Please model this.
Amino acid sequence: MFYFLEETLSTNDDAKSTCYHHSDVIVAERQTKGRGQRGNSWLSGEGLNLTFSVVLEPHFLAPREQFLISEAVALSLVEALREFGIESQIKWTNDIYVGDCKIAGVLIENSLSESSVKRSIVGIGLNVNQKEFSASLLNPTSMVLAAGREFVREEVLKMVYERLMANFVLLEALRFEVVREAYRELMYRADEWHNYRLSSGEVIEAKIEGVRDSGELIVSDKSGARREFLFKEIEFIIEQRGDRVDKA
Ligand code: BTN
Model:
């Protein structure tokens, strides 16, 4: 079921309420405390974009398999954008990029039992019709900027939801390899040499080789050594594109 809210702090927080169940979606027109990854806030122009959270109950996944949720969500966003004529890629772990610009972000919060993933709150911020962004954001983009036309947000929401539920069915059928392979094919900067900043501050030149099933990024460095990193241990260095316009 879809629940539409005019204003809320964060749909991810709302979705934690036990009154919501598997496949429910909480959509907000305005979030006053939208949250992003790495403790960042999520800024979204009011009435222009999509900010929503989907509740999933993937009881069939073991805690060690939880990265599959990230993979399925990112894949769903790429597939939905493709339906609207926009080609995108997945910046590990689950940012969605068009070229070097971010079009969507995902914040997944899982509750685990010892043997399974009990509940997964999948928060999605997708830039749809916003043309000007805060100067504080690095290379934001939107569907309107990528495609040169505006989109009906309800149609986009329906498409993302459909793709997400279809990919959830694949997971439920334990067809994990289909989702994993599709994710790997779509990885931003895969097999290319780029600079990355490590949590120590060191910058390395490295090439993405893939991702472990448990979610660690696999890269090789110039010495030929293969190295693996957790989310907080490595950061992509991406050059700033174009002019920045200071709009919220
Ligand atoms: C990121 O790229 O940092 C993740 C952004 C996730 C934003 C969405 S908007 C809907 C949901 N509610 C939140 O507070 N955050 C997520």
In short: The chain has five helices and twelve strands. Residues 134 and 248 are 5 Å apart (CA to CA). The chain has a mean pLDDT of 96. Residues 10-12, 31, 34-37, 40, 42, 51-53, 95, 105-107, 123-125 surround biotin (CB under 6 Å).
